[in-house]
Design a protein that fits this description.
The protein is an alpha+beta fold and 126 residues long. The chain has helices at 31-46, 99-114; strands at 5-9, 14-19, 25-30, 70-74, 81-87, 91-97. It has two domains: 5-46, no CATH class; 70-116, no CATH class. The longest helix is centred in the N-terminal third of the chain and has 16 residues, at 31-46. The protein is elongated, with a radius of gyration of 21 Å.
Length: 126
């Protein structure tokens, strides 16, 4: 038996999921309902095993979002950095970053922004 069929319909305003049962069962969700289910799934996934790895090995191929919108602000209690990043798949994601880690992140971003891209370094042999 194959899995459900996922389809965008009604000028990309409705998600229809059709389950291959007898008879077929279909559910339809508008964007707010999809957002609600994504939030619920995220909370449930956070409690599942195996957990999401705590570390990430750089160099992996990923489906990155290009040039996302973002906003930072200090949190009202301790002045830590509150980082908001817009992901077109999951909405606005919010991260509370301790001051020392915010300094480290700022330094790494600055170093990467100032570095030449790896493919454009002048140390190549011709």
């Amino acid at each position: 038996m194959s899995g459900p069929n996922w389809k965008l319909e009604n000028s990309l305003e409705t998600l229809t999921i059709t389950f291959p049962s007898t008879p077929p069962v279909a559910i339809q969700w508008k964007a707010p309902m999809v957002d609600e289910h994504l939030q619920k799934l995220g909370k449930l996934r956070a409690g599942m095993r195996p957990e999401i790895p705590k570390t990430f090995a750089p160099g992996q191929l990923v489906g990155a979002v290009s040039d996302p919108a973002w906003v930072t602000e200090p949190d009202a209690m301790l002045g830590r950095t509150l980082l908001h990043i817009r992901d077109p798949r999951f909405g606005w994601l919010h991260y509370l970053i301790p001051k020392e880690k915010a300094r480290k992140l700022a330094g790494l971003l600055q170093a990467q922004a100032d570095a030449e891209p790896p493919g454009q370094r002048g140390d190549k042999l011709n």
